[in-house]
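Field reference: sequence -> structure
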Amino acid sequence: DVLSSSGRRHQQVGTELRARSSGAEAEPSNWIPIRLGAERTLFSSPSEIMHRFSAILNDLDVAIYKDLGQEDATLMLAVLWRHPCASEKIGCGVKSFQVHQKDHSEGGYRFFVLVRIDGTFEDFSYRKCVDVLFPPVQTKRRSRTFRD
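Structure field:
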């Protein structure tokens, strides 16, 4: 299946994000849960999404340079739409997602790549997407007044 860049999946995520962003700044314990992907998986915090993507990256059963399964791909597309450069990354549309790996001489780490409909590919940071879904809490510094 081709994952359309104009599909309804990203519209559902957008609706949930608008509802989230209209509220006050959330504390880490007060994240507004969101549902993503075809299975409408509920994520209650950024750490839950990060854990899910980390599990995919580190799963030794996930074949390097092979397309991910439809469930993971649908979730990834929903999250990718939150990337600060989503339109540029997605381009003509997403065909699939893959896990790639750098050579051990370059650190040996794994990362996600989207394969576009035209056969070109692009890596992306899922962390940047998660930061949009669950904006980092801004801590306000309290000034201290020292008296003699």
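Note: Confidence is low (pLDDT under 50) at residues 4-27, 139-148.
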